[in-house]
């Protein structure tokens, strides 16, 4: 028996010579025991003999036998040898064939458990891209310009101090000095009214909205989003089992009317300072009307302030939260556009009565950490590096925006309209209603150019306008004309088909 095992193992290990000997031997013996080729009570060769048969170190065989013994496949007795254990009682019972029943096809049982209905809806509307940088990826800043030297200096300082508490889980709400610094920064730059206890550190706006939905909405509750709106927020709502209602926007922002006003939502999600993706600013009258409607009907409002720091031709606009006197607005933001997306540091400013639940929910559900990063971020903010970096990047992004607009006009004149170019990191190139913006983006992607189809941001296809969402922040100014030429060639080809 021992010689046969050794010869069999040697034959199969030679076929898999690229795999380390330990992994090969462990896997083959384990598989033989599970399949019954080495039955209960079978004696394995001695470690010395098997090592010689396989031309491997004896320690390799000993390690494999020890691992198999720890996992319960074999047992070893000094002076007697190593024997295969009876594991039949540990194996799962094979399910009997499922009888055919109405509504269950012949492949239903074999397919195994399926995704939930919510899961299938989510998978059917994915919008992420495997490429996240280059022309004309929307929502991505120029990460090459990040002031890494200043960041590393602060980071090294914190590592030298080596405080153990910064290597553990984050306290409820996040790193206190960062919460305080953010409260002061947002008050000065965005007219956000808060104290440090109302600021909760998150990994980004997605997480902030996820927590808001978990705490404030039940399955089936109605949520208003803008129409069009960021697809990631829409899909997050769907995955939580909410009834998502798209409210059209006009030149003054979200504009609920008629039937919608008769059915108040539990939560309203808006981008008042820079609507995404169309770029309009919610007027003061519309803001006041929305706040009053929420007060009368007991609605929560989530203000997604994703990139309002970048405006061309004026100061950033005050927040909706700063006008809220009823404590109904939840203000969410992040450093993804200001610094770099991979940082994964965001924040939410909540009404006083939600401060405790929000901080506790983030700690309970996500067990946040990254306190070293949060501590560096606090100093980075307090020392003025964020402000100086933003000042520099506004100038750079303004030049790139102008270059892209010039490239569009040089190719199309006034034939194609530019929308939403007064702020942020992207603009929209409007296309004729007959254009297939999805096909244009697909072909452009194959040629190394990224663009988002405007129609994919609409909840209802019959409302969808056609266009391309083009990000310019991460594209060097010198590269923009050539990159747009490639895109324009794709646009022209597709428009001739429509």
TrEMBL record:
<keyword id="KW-0804">Transcription</keyword>
<dbReference type="InterPro" id="IPR051446">
    <property type="entry name" value="HTH_trans_reg/aminotransferase"/>
</dbReference>
<dbReference type="InterPro" id="IPR036390">
    <property type="entry name" value="WH_DNA-bd_sf"/>
</dbReference>
<dbReference type="Pfam" id="PF00392">
    <property type="entry name" value="GntR"/>
</dbReference>
<comment type="similarity">
    <text>In the C-terminal section; belongs to the class-I pyridoxal-phosphate-dependent aminotransferase family.</text>
</comment>
<dbReference type="InterPro" id="IPR015424">
    <property type="entry name" value="PyrdxlP-dep_Trfase"/>
</dbReference>
<dbReference type="InterPro" id="IPR000524">
    <property type="entry name" value="Tscrpt_reg_HTH_GntR"/>
</dbReference>
<feature type="domain" description="HTH gntR-type">
    <location>
        <begin position="19"/>
        <end position="87"/>
    </location>
</feature>
<dbReference type="GO" id="GO:0008483">
    <property type="term" value="F:transaminase activity"/>
</dbReference>
<dbReference type="InterPro" id="IPR004839">
    <property type="entry name" value="Aminotransferase_I/II_large"/>
</dbReference>
<protein>
    <submittedName>
        <fullName>PLP-dependent aminotransferase family protein</fullName>
    </submittedName>
</protein>
<dbReference type="Pfam" id="PF00155">
    <property type="entry name" value="Aminotran_1_2"/>
</dbReference>
<dbReference type="InterPro" id="IPR036388">
    <property type="entry name" value="WH-like_DNA-bd_sf"/>
</dbReference>
<keyword id="KW-0805">Transcription regulation</keyword>
<keyword id="KW-0808">Transferase</keyword>
<keyword id="KW-0032">Aminotransferase</keyword>
<dbReference type="InterPro" id="IPR015421">
    <property type="entry name" value="PyrdxlP-dep_Trfase_major"/>
</dbReference>
<keyword id="KW-0238">DNA-binding</keyword>
<keyword id="KW-0663">Pyridoxal phosphate</keyword>
